[in-house]
Each structure stands twice: as C-alpha cells, then as structure tokens.
Design brief:
alpha/beta, Rossmann fold, 5-stranded parallel beta sheet, two-stranded antiparallel ribbon, globular
C-alpha cells in the first residue's frame, strides 16, 4: 500500500523548494495549495465564497485572491470559514490523485496547513521544513513583494513552529540549498 508522507512548513520556510527537489527525484508530490487555487476557480466554489464574503471578492467573475487574503489573514474565523469550503474539495481531489499513484511505495502531500486542516491524520509520516524567522520573512517579502508587517500577520495566523516540530516525524532545516538537498537525500534513503 502506498504511504502518504506529509510535507509542511510555515510561510517562507522553503517547502516548495523541498517539494520541487522531491519531484526532480521522481517522487510524486501533490501540491495542495496549487490544487486549492484551481478548485477555488471552479464556478461552484467561487459561488460559495461569494455567498459567504459578498460579491466584492469577485473580479470578472473570479475570486480576487489579494482582496480575499486581506480579509482572511486578519480574521481567523473568516479564514476557518473559507477553509471549510475549500478543504473538503481538496481532500476529494487528493483521493482521486492518489488512486493513480498506487504503484509507488510512497507519495508526498505538500500543504502549508497540513496540521491546521487536519490532513496530517491521513499521513503515515510528516516532514516539517523550517528556517529562521527573519529568513522566512525576507524570503516571503521578496517572493510576494509584500511588507514585513503583512508577512508577520500571516505568520501569526499559522500554527506556531514549536507545535509543528512536536507533531512532525522529520525536520529539515532549509538554510543553505546544498544542505537542504543532503537532508532530503538522507531522508529518502531512510524512507526507501
């Protein structure tokens, strides 16, 4: 039976870097955030989000992601309401994706909110990608062209890293890329 390895980390930690490296190593990786974006653009889900948050979240009949982010990253309750719409759809999509991967010993499910969404319960093991807080903030500011305050606000809305470490089976320190790759290689050898 194919094992599910969860891959998570706070914003700017480098979980996408690790996911891309795993893909290069021919490990199937399900990127939950990418799939959630696609699902959010479906007419059915767009309608549910507009019903909950009002038509002001729409721009040309699509979700204005920046506008919606400003709402939900300031209000944990609104974020939970949004997740209640999107997460069941992502879970269904993942199950379909997994059916096509049964010939693999393990697959990786990458999700920024693996613990918060409850998806970790479906995983056989969890990998947490970490980096120093200032590094994470700098990476995110550069990547998203955002302010330090807005990045800090998003970090504050995520589960504290200490809690994630306690719940994880493996921790990868993502500071220098070659060291990160070495840690992933070591982990892959162990998992195989």
């Amino acid at each position: 039976m194919t094992k599910i390895i969860g891959l998570t980390g706070g914003i700017g930690s480098g979980k996408t870097t690790v996911a891309n490296y795993l893909l290069e190593r021919n490990i199937p990786v399900y990127i939950a955030d990418d799939e959630a974006r696609k699902i959010t653009n479906s007419k059915e889900v767009t309608a549910k989000i507009a019903e909950l948050f009002g038509d002001q979240v729409l721009e040309n009949d699509q979700i204005n992601r920046a506008f919606l982010a400003k709402i939900v990253f300031k209000d944990k309750e609104k974020l939970a309401q949004l997740n209640a719409i999107i997460h069941p759809e992502v879970k269904k999509h993942f199950k379909k994706w997994l059916k096509n991967k049964q010939n693999y010993k393990f697959v990786v499910k990458e999700s920024a909110i693996l613990f918060e969404s409850g998806s970790y319960k479906d995983c056989d093991a969890i990998i947490l990608v970490t980096a120093p807080l200032e590094t994470r903030i700098e990476r995110t500011m550069k990547r998203d062209n955002s302010t330090k305050e807005s990045v800090q606000q998003r970090i504050n809305n995520q589960m504290p890293e200490k809690e994630k470490i306690e719940k994880s089976d493996y921790v990868i320190q993502n500071i220098l890329l070659k060291d990160t790759h070495s840690q992933v290689d070591e982990l892959l050898n162990y998992l195989k």
